[in-house]
Amino acid sequence: MIEIIIEATKTKTSPNFLIQDIPGTSGRLDVIIRCILAINSLPTFIKNNIIFTTILNGAPDPPKLFKFYFSKLNFPDDEINAALFFKKLIEKTMKIDITDAENVHNSNKIEINPGIIYIRSDIINYLKKIMIKEFPIIFLHESGNSFRKNIIPYLKLNDYSNLYVIIGDQSGYNSQTYKFLEDNFRKFKLKGNKSYLSSQCIVYLLYELMLIGFF
Ligand SMILES: C[S@@+](CC[C@H](N)C(=O)[O-])C[C@H]1O[C@@H](n2cnc3c(N)ncnc32)[C@H](O)[C@@H]1O
């Protein structure tokens, strides 16, 4: 199982964005939608082993964390309907209040939609909870060590069947999150000295994992 985690640093936590201009009015929800669509288009044997977690951190009411379980998820296959889907999800969160971020893996999570868990947590508190499980956690960054050369030895030191990977959004990471990641986890870069879109990184990452028989 792989969990891919992205903090959507500026994505709105209210549903008042325009479907006619998703990138310009939602705080780049389109970046997150493209990540989900990229995973959703993969063969079932891969996507059933993926959880995609995004933490919306934009105004007016951050943070809002959503976990998408692709084994159970029925998600639209185009960007417009995906944005409408997100509008409804965010509307639902406005009727719920879960404030105790400390209980991320306990009771304070809600299945807000089939295959989607909602938690009121920021990324750092969420990662602190995951760290207790002792599965490998890495993050992707253009300045990291080569993923291809280093991931197998790294995974061998850990549990090979579970991996958490953090990816930045269109602005990379916010400074507080980046410091936390640098202090706690290993940093890897994908093949080629380029800065890729977040959704593109997911595809490259899963391809690399397929090459080493992760799925
Ligand atoms: C569009 S990039 C962010 C670019 C942003 N302008 C910056 O300076 O960080 C989105 C994210 O994809 C990941 N990424 C992009 N290219 C990568 C590469 N070559 N290797 C590893 N991760 C990469 C990083 O996590 C990055 O934060």
Task: Provide a short characterization of the protein structure.
This protein has 215 residues and is an alpha/beta fold.
Features:
215 residues, alpha/beta, Alpha/beta knot, 22% strand, binds S-adenosylmethionine
Overall helicity: 25-40%
> Using DSSP, what is the number of strands?
8
Alpha-carbon distance between the two ends: 8 Å
Q: Count up the domains.
A: 1
Q: Report the major sheet.
A: 8 strands, mixed
* CATH homology superfamily name: SPOUT methyltransferase, trefoil knot domain
Low-confidence stretches: 100-106
Estimate what percentage of residues fall within beta strands.
15-25%
Ions, cofactors and other ligands present here are: S-adenosylmethionine
CATH fold name, please? Answer: Alpha/beta knot
Mean of residue pLDDT?
92
- Radius of gyration, in Å, reads 16 Å
CATH classification class: Alpha Beta
Strand arrangement across the biggest beta sheet: 4-5-3-2-1-7-6-8
CATH-derived architecture: 3-Layer(aba) Sandwich
Shape call? globular
Strand and helix order: EHHHEEHEEHEHEHEH
Query: Given the structure, what is the number of helices?
Result: 8
- Given the helix and strand composition, which structural class is it? alpha/beta
